[in-house]
Amino acid sequence: MATTHSADVIIVGGGIGGLTAALSLHAAGIEPLVLESAREVRPLGVGINLQPAAVRELDELGLLDDLAALGVPAVEHAFADGRGRTLFGEARGTAAGYHWPQFSVHRGELQMMLLDAVVKRLGPEAVRTGVQVEDFEETADGVRVHAVDRSTGGRLGFSAEALVGADGIHSTLRALLHPDQGPLQWNGVTMWRGVTEEDAFAPGNAVVIAADDKNTQFVAYQISRAALDRRPHAGQLGLSGADGRARRPGGGRQLERSGHDRGSAAALRGVGVRLDGPAGSVRPQ
């Protein structure tokens, strides 16, 4: 197995963190190489929220317009009880005085946006897919990475001056660096997540957070600018009526918001949905 100088910095993992690191290093004049174990990078996942500090970094990389074309700026967190009755609101992003907005966006679409930027700015050779990193060793002038080509089974070697681990929750590099720490510990929270479409939702692009007295939570928010733009009445759905139910303007189907009712998740469309709570407090039906 021949090892050649591959880049100034090798980044293990082609997710959001790894691709953003590659763009930042490139902007600073440092040549990165991203090694991704998946044979193909696909837009997987559901909704995530980017706080103003994260949006600032993407803005400095010249990606704010691209992000705005994908995601939805969240201007409020709307807190509700288990029946959907609004308790209070908390301003977010620019509405809270930050210089950058908070964006709700589909995780996979964000990753593909970053991948496109890396390919355009650094070239397609900057991202190697189907490469499973197995080990590394420090050398006199940097680091040597040992990997396997998942398509052929062939052994690969890469060298660089530095190595960045961005390979996710089951990180190979973390296990190599900290072998005695063991696996990550479960915090006792069970979560159901999903994405569906609806022609209207909470006013002001709010992130709705409802909770009951058992600390079971129901979280819903819009994540797609394209879906929002093609819905003529998007953003006009009130959060609660006199009986604590959410209604579309002018009537229409009513939506119950309850941390214990998985039917609430099925009723919401065009938004990212999350159900979580202590273990055993929410059960699949």
Automatic annotation (TrEMBL):
- Residue ranges of domain FAD-binding in the record: 7-178
Gene3D superfamilies the record matches: 3.30.9.30, FAD/NAD(P)-binding domain
Quick one: where's region Disordered? 232-285
Q: Does the keyword Oxidoreductase apply?
A: yes
Cross-referenced InterPro entries, in alphabetical order?
Answer: FAD-bd, FAD-dep_Monooxygenase_BioMet, FAD/NAD-bd_sf
Q: Which UniProt keywords apply?
A: Monooxygenase, Oxidoreductase
Q: Where is the composition biased (Basic and acidic residues)?
A: 254-263
Classify the source by domain of life.
Bacteria
Record protein name field: FAD-binding domain-containing protein
